[in-house]
Design brief:
single chain, alpha+beta, five-stranded mixed β-sheet, 9 strands
Length: 158
Amino acid sequence: MSKLKEADFYYGSVLSTLFTNHITPVLIENDKDRQVYDYSTDKGDFRAYIKYRTSKKNLKSDNYFSWDFVLTNDIDEIKKYIDDNYNIVLFLVCGSKNLKESELAILNKDEIKLILSLNKQSITISRKKGEKAFRISIGGGRDKAMPIKSSRKLEDVI
């Protein structure tokens, strides 16, 4: 029990953010690649699906950050939650070697459904330094990417 795993730091960052907003979770599922929690709030219930990447992709520009989240083993589970009418929220922890530079992207159910409808096996999320939004590749380059506000709060998606 005293040995912490790398994943604990990333999942813990999301939990800490939610605890700060006085939201208490119930752990439903977990493994080394993702964790799933149920939450009840005064604004409604939701199921949190948390994935993380420990570091950015190696890119040629220091002003551009990108992370890839593989969904191959998660797609059926996420689809089942949607089919079972859960208000699912996807938390993508975009890690950095310097942990305090890590970021959190929060996707709502409609955004998740759009990504799944494209039959993508992964999510590529990126952000240019100074931009106010992440961009999720849905085909057609950055100009046609799905924007996700980098300052998005949980109450904006539930």
